[in-house]
Amino acid sequence: MGFLDLFVVAVMPVLEVLLVAGVGLFFAMDRINLLGPEARNYLNKIVFYLFAPSLVFSNLAETITFQSLVTLWFMPVNIFLTFIIGSVLGWILIKITKTPEHIRGIVIGCCSAGNLGNLLLIIVPAVCDESNNPFGESCSTYAETYASLSMAIGAIFIWSYTYPLVGAYASENMDHSSSITINSSEGAPETFSKSSTEALLPSRDCNDSEDYSGQGELPLTNSDERTKVPIVKKTVQRIKIIMRKIDLKKAFAPSAIAAVVGFIVGTITPIRKVLIGDSAPLHVIDNSASLMGEAGIPCLTLIMGANLLKGLKRSEVSLWVIIGIIAVRNIFLPLLGIGVVKAAYLFGLVGSDSLYQFVLMLQYAVPSAMSVGTMTQLFQRGQVETSVIMLWSYAVSSISLTLWSTLFMWLLP
C-alpha cells in the first residue's frame, strides 16, 4: 500500500469531520439560526441520551463475542494507559502554560480522551479494503471487531473518567462564581447565568483577587499571608477536590451503561442468538438501535461546528494551550504508544497479529474525542473553547494521522 493511497485513506474521515463541522457553523450563523444556543442544547441532549448509547450498543453487541473478548484482553489495558498518560501530559501542560482555571478540565479531557470510535471505524476497515494492504486476507474479518471494541471501551472510560473530571472542574468554577456574587458587598452584586458560556469566565475583578489567584495555595494561621505548598501536597489537594465533586450517578453515563449491556448481549450466547443476526427473533431491536446510532456522529459534529461561530470571533484559549494539546495528542502520545505496544509484544501480551498491534498504536495517535464537546455543552461551560481546540486538532490530524499510520505499518512485522 503506497504512501499516497494511505494518505487518501487516512485523510478522508478527518476531512469529513471538518466539512460537517463547517455545515454546523453555517447553520449557526445569525442569518440562518437553525443551530442557535437553545437548539444545540436540545440536540446535544438527544445525542447524549439516545444516539450515542445506541451506537455503542449496536456496534459492540454485533461484533464482540466471549472468545474475542478473551483474546483481546490487552485492549482495555492499552486504552486505560492512553487516558492515564494523556492526563499526566495534560496536567503538565496546564502547569507549564499556566492555563486559566476555567478551562483546565477541558485541557486535561482533550489530552486524555481520544477519538477511539468513529475514526477507527472508518480508517481500519478502509485500510483493509485496499487490495495491497499489509495485513493480509484476514484483515477485513477482524477490522470491524477491533474498531468496535475500541469504541465501546473508549466510551466506558470517556464517560466514567473524563466526564466526571470535566464536570468537577466545571462545578468548581460555578461554586467560585457563586462565592464572588455573594461576597460582593459594594454596589449591586455581579450575576452569573448558568446557561451562558461566559459564566465560566472569572469576573473582571476576580483575576486580581486573592481568592482567585490563591486557589492552588493553602492558608496559614495568619490570614494576611499565603504560602505555596509543595507540589505533592498541591496535587493531593487537587485530587481530593475532584473526588469530592465526582457524582457517581453522572459517572454511569448512558453510553457507559450501553457499553455494559452490549458486552452482555455479545458475550452471552443465548441472548446473542435472540437479538443479533437476521434470523434472530428480536433482531429488529438491534436494527433500530443501529439506525439511531448512525445519527449520533453527524449530529455531534454539527454541534461542534456550530459552537465555533463565537470562537472565531473571540476565544479565551491561549495559542500555547492549543499548541500544547496538539503536541500531546500528535507527538508525545503516539511516540509513547509505540513503546507501550512494542513492550507488550516483547512480553507476549498481544500476540503476533499485526493488525491488532496497528489498532493499539493507532489509539494513541487519534485526535481528541468529540465527546468532550458533548460534556461542555451539557455543563454549559467552555463550549467555545472546546470547539476551537477541536478545529485545530482535527485540522492537524489530517496530516499527522496519515504520517503515524505509515510509520506504524513500517514498524510492524
Automatic annotation (TrEMBL):
Any one of the GO BP annotations: endoplasmic reticulum to cytosol auxin transport
UniProt biased composition (Polar residues): 183-198
Disordered: where is this region? 183-221
UniProt keyword annotation of Membrane present: yes
Q: What GO CC terms are in its UniProt record?
A: endoplasmic reticulum membrane
Instruction: Write out the transmembrane intervals.
Output: 6-30, 42-61, 73-94, 106-127, 147-170, 251-271, 291-309, 321-346, 358-379, 391-412
Where is the protein found, in the record's own terms? Endoplasmic reticulum membrane
Per UniProt, which keywords does this protein have? Auxin signaling pathway, Endoplasmic reticulum, Membrane, Transmembrane, Transmembrane helix, Transport
For this chain, the family text in UniProt reads:
Belongs to the auxin efflux carrier (TC 2.A.69.2) family.
- Return the PANTHER family for the record: PROTEIN PIN-LIKES 1-LIKE, PTHR31651
**Function of this protein?**
Involved in cellular auxin homeostasis by regulating auxin metabolism. Regulates intracellular auxin accumulation at the endoplasmic reticulum and thus auxin availability for nuclear auxin signaling.
Name of the protein described by the UniProt record? Protein PIN-LIKES 3-like
User: Which gene underlies this protein?
Assistant: LOC111294508
